[in-house]
Structures are given as C-alpha cells and as structure tokens.
Automatic annotation (TrEMBL):
Keywords: Carbohydrate metabolism, Kinase, Transferase, Xylose metabolism
SUPFAM superfamilies hit by this protein: Actin-like ATPase domain, Winged helix' DNA-binding domain
Biological role: Transcriptional repressor of xylose-utilizing enzymes.
Organism the protein comes from: Veillonella criceti
GO molecular function terms attached to this record: glucokinase activity
Full protein name: Glucokinase
GO BP term (any one): D-xylose metabolic process
A Pfam short name: HTH_24
InterPro entries: ATPase_NBD, ROK, WH-like_DNA-bd_sf, WH_DNA-bd_sf
Length: 394
C-alpha cells in the first residue's frame, strides 16, 4: 500500500484475494470494479503462476455453486525483523502471514554498534538455517524512515541517524530488503486485517515508550512530502519562556516513559505506592506493566499517572480529529485492563475539545505487535507481487 501508487488489475485482484481469504470471482468483480470477464482471465493467469488456487465451493440459493479462490500463503518465506524498544524479534513468516519460527534478543543497555550487530546476527542465524528458504527481508524500525531508499533517518534505539539498512542487508545477504516505520506497519495491519478493516480514512495512534501516528487517507498510506508524516511525539505543546524558551514535546508527557517517570518522581518524594517495592524500579529494564496493574487496583500515584496521560492524549486526539476528521481512531497500546481506567478522562477531554459536538469512533487495540508484523508482511508481499510474482522477476 504505497501513496499515489497506480496498481495493475493483476495486482488489485491478487492483493484482494490475499487480504480477504476465500472469495468468489463475483465478489472480486463487485468489490474491485473490474469486469467479470477480466476477473476470470486474470484469475486463470494467477492460478497458472501458482499464486492462487481453488479452495472450495460455496453453496448458492440460486444457480450453480461458486468456486472460492484463495491466495497461496506458502508462496514464499519472509524474514521479518522488528527492532523494538527493549529487544529485536526475528520472524520466519509465510507470505500469507503464518509464523513458522521466531527468536528474540534483548538490546537493553547496548551501544548502537551492539544493537546493529544483534540485528545482523539474528538475520544470519535464520538465513543460514537449512530449514528456511528466505526470499526477502522486511525490517521494522522505530522513528522516521525513508522507505524508498531503506534508510533509518533517526531511531530512539541508540540514537543512530541515517543508517542505510536496505543497502547493508542486501549487500550482506543478497536478498531484497524492505524497510518501514513501525507505526506505518501497524496502521497497514489494522487497516487490512484488524479494527480498521473497511475504514477508508483511519487514524492510528501507537502509545508505547514513544508516541507515533499513522494516517490511512482514502485507502492509502499517507507518508507526507519527505516521508516524515506521523511523528506526532515531537509536537511542541508548551514553551517555558522563563527558561530560555525550553520546549516540552508531547512524547515527554504522553508516553509510557512519561508514566514511568511520573511514578518514580512521586515515589522519590516519599509518597506510598504498590510499585515502590518493585525490584527493577530504578533499572533501565523496568516495565510499566506493574504501574498498569496497580492503577487497576486503585493505586493513587499510578492512577494520577494514567489520568495525566489520558488528558494529554484526549487533547492530542481532539486536535487531530479537528484537523483531519478520520472515520475511526485506533489507539494501540499494551495497557490491557488499565485502558478502562484511563478511558473516561481521555474521552471527556476529547469530546470537550472538538470543534463541533459529535461522537468519535475511538477503538482501543491491544494486539499492536501482531498487527505490526501483519502490516510488514503485507507491505513486503505487495512489493514482491509487483516486482517479482507478476513480472516474472526473481
């Protein structure tokens, strides 16, 4: 799903089948706007290339039963590498999204060089494993990414800048490599396979140790002029003129990092909290899950932290809604049951700051890692379809 990309009928039909499971030719024609004879001819060609197959017949109340077509999910094996906040996760995945194998390596406290070596070593271990015949690599990164050139412009992981991952990995492993930002992968996965399915104008906000956004506009991923769209965490929300115009950015007050720092600061003041006895409270490895659990149980400090973040998220979503007016907003996080604790203040602030009183379709998603993976698989498979599967390339 690339911005302003013109797809051939072959690509449109293959992608439709790939994303929608078992479908009939009549459904394909109806939902793509391609004429039934053209659909039949293209489907025959796709079947001859081993890209789709006849799955089963569907009974019909009238006329002959229709044959349902399905994408060949085993077409290729892909290596998807997800560089997360605390670890690197490598997946061996079929083109249809089925996970065959995964491995995880911690990167907590590592230098930039050590993180990069972890990425390369994980890829090497899987590619050299005789069980897998990898056809392409997909690399998911935090921070701004030039997806066309495959360059990581900046990453919070180790604070690196302008690393040409596509060139490095292709030179090293002789495999086509695709690089994408994690929130764009997430929005792609949610749009085609999750809570955003069928929503043509979709805003996805990822709430984690940072804060990022991604917009699906009329069914296409919006990237912006220089591939920078969505870096909402860098938005300035306050200026302290008394301190030589020190800026406060949204990510500093509306992220899991902000939650953790608020709770730690209050504990250091001598306030009591259920998480004060957590052995990792001052360690880099400290997670926010104990804070979420304590908030659900009524811990005062943890509730304050969530409500504070909920207020800022409500303002943020109101500003975005007033600006771009999406059909649906998906807020993806790992809060679990704590979402219900934060939701009332978030919605109150959101609705209070809308330009006009209206109901906002806000959905919470807790499967961010899964939909991020599916999104990257979809992005890679779409590129493979246009560059290799339908062109006869390798």
């Amino acid at each position: 799903m690339q911005s302003k990309q013109v797809l051939s009928n072959d690509e449109i039909i293959l992608n439709y089948i790939r994303r929608n499971g078992s479908v009939s030719k009549a459904i394909i024609a109806r939902n793509t706007g391609i004429t039934p004879p053209t659909v039949t001819n293209i489907c025959n060609t796709l079947a001859d290339k081993g890209l789709i197959y006849e799955d089963r017949q569907e009974r019909s109340a009238l006329g002959r039963p229709s044959m349902l077509l399905k994408f060949n999910e085993q077409k290729e094996m892909l290596l998807i590498i997800h560089v997360r906040t605390h670890n690197v996760v490598c997946y061996v995945v079929q083109s249809g999204g089925v996970i065959l194998h995964q491995m995880k390596q911690s990167i907590i406290g590592l230098t930039v060089e050590a993180i990069l070596n972890t990425i390369y070593r994980c890829a090497e271990d899987i590619i050299e494993d005789m069980r897998w015949t990898i056809a392409a690599i997909g690399l998911i990164l935090r921070g701004p990414v030039d997806s066309k050139k495959g360059i990581s412009i900046y990453s919070p992981n180790g604070k690196w800048t302008n690393i040409p991952f596509k060139y490095i990995l292709e030179e090293r492993f002789q495999l086509p490599t695709y690089v994408e930002n994690d929130v764009r992968c997430l929005s792609t996965g949610e749009y085609y396979y999750g809570s955003g399915k069928g929503i043509e104008n979709l805003l996805v906000l990822k709430f984690s140790y940072g804060l990022g956004a991604s917009l699906i506009y009329h069914g296409s991923l919006y990237r912006g002029y220089n591939d920078y769209a969505g870096e909402i965490g860098y938005s300035v929300i306050d200026i302290d003129e008394a301190k030589s115009n020190v800026f406060t950015r949204l990510e500093e007050v509306a992220s899991e990092t902000a939650i953790r720092e608020y709770v730690l600061a209050e504990i250091k003041k001598g306030r009591l909290s259920k998480v004060a006895t957590n052995q990792d409270i001052l360690a880099d490895a400290f997670r926010v899950e104990p804070i979420y659990e304590a908030a659900v149980e009524g811990d005062e400090i943890c509730l304050e932290a969530l409500n504070r973040v909920g207020k800022y998220l409500g303002i943020t979503l109101a500003n975005l809604y007033n600006m771009i007016n999406p059909q649906r907003i998906i807020l993806s996080s790992a809060m679990g049951n704590a979402v219900g604790t934060m939701d009332p203040i978030l919605r109150t602030v959101l609705e209070k700051n809308l330009h006009r009183a209206q109901a906002v379709d806000l959905v919470y998603s807790g499967n961010g890692s899964y939909y991020t993976l599916l999104g990257m698989v979809d992005i890679v498979s779409s590129r493979r379809a246009s560059e290799v599967w339908l062109s006869g390339g390798r």
